[in-house]
Automatic annotation (TrEMBL):
The keyword ATP-binding is assigned to this record: no
Name by which UniProt lists this protein: Aldehyde dehydrogenase family protein
Keyword Magnesium tagged: no
Domain Aldehyde dehydrogenase per the UniProt entry, residue ranges: 33-250
InterPro entries, per the entry: Ald_DH/histidinol_DH, Ald_DH_N, Aldehyde_DH_dom
Transmembrane annotation, as ranges: none
Domain of life, per lineage: Bacteria
Keyword terms of this UniProt record: Oxidoreductase
Signal peptide positions (record): none
Length: 284
């Protein structure tokens, strides 16, 4: 029997494609469903939120300006890498959620990512339109990404729920700042490692660990955040009031965390898109 003392892991944040420590220097212990210590996670601060939003804004022009085909290929590459680390995700989901169905949950998360990746080059044809007009004009309506989206990830579903709220943001061409599940952050941390080593440009997805109750209001009130998904928040009414000051879009989500195993639809894709209508005169 080995008497070696295991080295406890202390994970970092994921901002701008890099892994910085929290500006505050704070960490907190992460335990499994039975209370056994697993690792330390960084506890993000207000400054970390600002840094993540800045990184997301900087990455937005390049990501939204990429072709839909290219975005789909990048996201599909993420799914390939998720598949490659399937065993690690199963172990972490099992430890975090105590689920006997960890393997099927991870498989569903990978399939969900592939599903949204497949929508990147279909959004325009499904949600856009050629508008009938009475006059010598062409009129087109095309969907455009909203911008930077703040996401408070589900608290209970540490991977499938996380993928279900993050993937549609990226598929539309938006960039994201995500606050992971506070008590179950390890799958989100591993996902950030996947994103860092994939083709996803730095800053497109930023993942913070810490307290949603602390970080949520700063995301909601930040003037450079264009939309907010409060799925993992407790006081959503307060976040909506904070968001009103900068007139940002706040997603209307169910009071109870949804059943993420249900088949997805394009509702979440619609929520991160703006309709742009263009008129053009017909030539002679």
């Amino acid at each position: 029997m080995s008497d070696r003392i295991a080295v406890a892991k202390t994970y970092k944040l994921f901002i701008g494609g890099k892994f910085p420590r929290s500006e505050s220097g704070r960490v907190y212990p992460v335990t499994d469903d039975k209370g056994k210590f697993l690792a330390n996670a960084a506890q993000a601060s207000r400054k970390d939120v600002r840094d993540a939003v800045s990184a997301a804004r900087k990455a937005f022009p390049g990501w939204s300006g990429a072709t839909a085909y290219n975005r789909g290929q990048v996201l599909y590459r993420v799914a390939e890498m998720l598949e490659g680390r399937r065993d690690q995700f199963i172990a972490e989901v099992s430890a975090s959620e105590g689920s006997r169905h960890a393997a099927s949950t991870v498989d569903a998360a990978i399939d969900r990512w592939v599903w949204y990746a497949g929508w990147t080059d279909k959004i325009a044809s499904v949600l856009g339109a050629a508008n009938p007009v009475a006059g010598p004009y062409f009129s087109f309506t095309v969907p455009e990404p909203t911008g930077v989206v703040g996401v408070l990830a589900p608290q209970r579903s540490s991977l499938l729920g996380l993928v279900s709220v993050l993937a549609p943001v990226l598929a539309t061409g938006c960039t994201a700042v995500v606050v992971s599940s506070e008590e179950r952050p390890l799958p989100a941390i591993t996902l950030s490692e996947v994103l860092a080593t994939s083709d996803l440009p730095g800053g497109v997805a930023n993942i913070l660990t810490g307290r949603a109750a602390e970080l949520g209001p700063w995301l909601a009130s930040h003037a450079d955040v264009n939309a907010l998904d409060p799925t993992g928040a407790e006081d959503r009414a307060a976040l909506a009031r904070d968001a009103a000051g900068t007139v940002k879009r706040v997603l209307n989500v169910p009071a109870e965390e949804p059943d993420w195993t249900l088949r997805p639809d394009i509702t979440r894709l619609r929520r991160y898109l703006e309709a742009k209508t263009v008129w053009h005169p017909m030539g002679n």
